[in-house]
């Protein structure tokens, strides 16, 4: 089973039914020495930006895959190896074997798929600060706009073309408004914050008509820091919005008189588009600087050959005293041969001798009649 990122997909809705997905099984062998059909591969398509998590891994585990580019794919489950028919066990002294090898069961895995937006710039701010209006002024996106908070319940994306710069553009995401306690899941909480992880630059939209505009900024910065994941370290550009309103102009003059430090800022009116092009230009400039920083900080990968793995290991269990044999090929043969059948059991012992397992067991002091465990199979050694 393969999961592949597809830019043509936008949601994970088709996987929300809780139904298990399974690849097609292979077929049984037929008469006249015919092979059984191979199992068919199953490919599941997910939106670009999907992160795959194994639900059986504990907290803090790394994701199985981060499908951040179109076409990226990962094998999540492999089918079991097919078995051999009795004809494959024919030898010069055994012309008509009365046993065969069964096929193995394929892998099973339960996944959690998390979709994170892929955007260059995230628009953040308190509810009703004007983020959706700014995205409308910047791009062809048409997020819902109204004079009450939480009109944006899901992030909206828009492509911003900066005509002042040749070939300059970026993808901006209008993020749902934050409230106090969002880092603990209050309000839209984590539904909002997890999307910011993928952005490189944040444009913090501040409502100048608020009683204390900078207090709202401090609240949101605190939530970003509390959530972690490096959100508070992302470069920010302030958009001092609603300067077209009398209260907004008055607050701007007051801030200028007080001389309070508030970082790089552009005064705008998202409604009338005043200052929005300058804000886009400054945002693109900051974005390019951040890309250069990331490129300089990203070390070149060091490729090292993987250590050669032993074909099998033989150890003695400290509690039970039983000798245990571990090894993919050894376990495969022990699982798939019917050890109640004398011929099949003899075939397994012969293969273990050819693999060198018999010599390793002898070094561990195993004698005939002693029980040996191979994977999950226990058998009496007949060496």
What does this protein structure show overall?
- It contains eight helices and 16 strands.
- The chain has 383 residues and is α/β, with parallel strands linked by helices.
- The protein is 25% helix and 20% strand.
- It folds into three domains: 1-114, Spo0b-associated Gtp-binding Protein, Chain: A (Distorted Sandwich); 121-297, Rossmann fold; 313-380, GTP-binding protein OBG, C-terminal domain (GMP Synthetase, Chain A, domain 3).
- A six-stranded mixed sheet has the order 8-9-7-10-11-12, sandwiched between helices. A four-stranded mixed sheet has the order 13-14-15-16. Strands 2-1-5 form a three-stranded mixed sheet, with no helix packed on it.
